[in-house]
């Protein structure tokens, strides 16, 4: 009896090995790539910690996520531009912001695709598309293919990654 149990355990381990390998690879593959970061924004982690609040550092540098409905901009309806909190890169216009029902600021398109970069994110064991600031490499959120027209995209971002610059009132 013992050899049969040993064989079935070995068979089970062989069957699970590809999944274990994928999970381990997935969890380590989402590490930051600094290749697109402009040199003036290639700061040390100590410099980032002194520049950002604890929550901003967690979200922007450690790729964290703020709780839904807790950020400053999820329900902001004012006209203006959303910039990167870390480096002030213009990212999204308020005219592209919409209510997605997720509790995070959501946009259907950036000001320019050159201002944001998108990388595959395997951190949860699934493939997602992470949105980064193209200037400083800061984590902004994720983009999904369930948004409204005209793009069909939903840039679901963290308020902690953004700074809102209101438009000047028109006379």
Describe the overall structure.
By secondary structure, this protein is of the alpha+beta class. The protein contains 3 helices and 9 strands, in the order αααβββββββββ. It has helices at about 1-30, 45-50, 55-60; strands at about 80-85, 90-95, 95-100, 105, 115-120, 130-135, 140-145, 155, 160-165. The strands form 2 sheets. Strands 3-4-8-7-6-5 form a 6-stranded antiparallel sheet, with no helix packed on it. It has a 3-stranded antiparallel sheet with strand order 2-1-9, with no helix packed on it. A hairpin with a 7-residue loop joins strand 3 (about 95-100) and strand 4. It is globular. The chain starts with a helix and ends in a 5-residue tail after the last strand. Residues about 20-35 have low confidence and may be disordered.
What is this entry, summarized?
The protein contains 3 helices and 9 strands, in the order H-H-H-E-E-E-E-E-E-E-E-E.
Number of helices: 3
Q: What structural category arises from helix and sheet content?
A: alpha+beta
> Compute the gyration radius: what is it?
20 Å
Total beta-strand segments: 9
From the spread of the alpha carbons, the general shape counts as globular
Q: Residue ranges: pLDDT <50 for 5 or more in a row?
A: 19-35
Proportion of beta-strand residues: 15-25%
- The averaged pLDDT comes out at 83
Elements, N to C (H/E): HHHEEEEEEEEE
Largest sheet: 6 strands, antiparallel
* Assembly context of the chains: single chain
Going across the major beta sheet, what is the strand order?
A: 3-4-8-7-6-5
Distance between the termini: 88 Å
Q: Give the % helix.
A: 10-25%
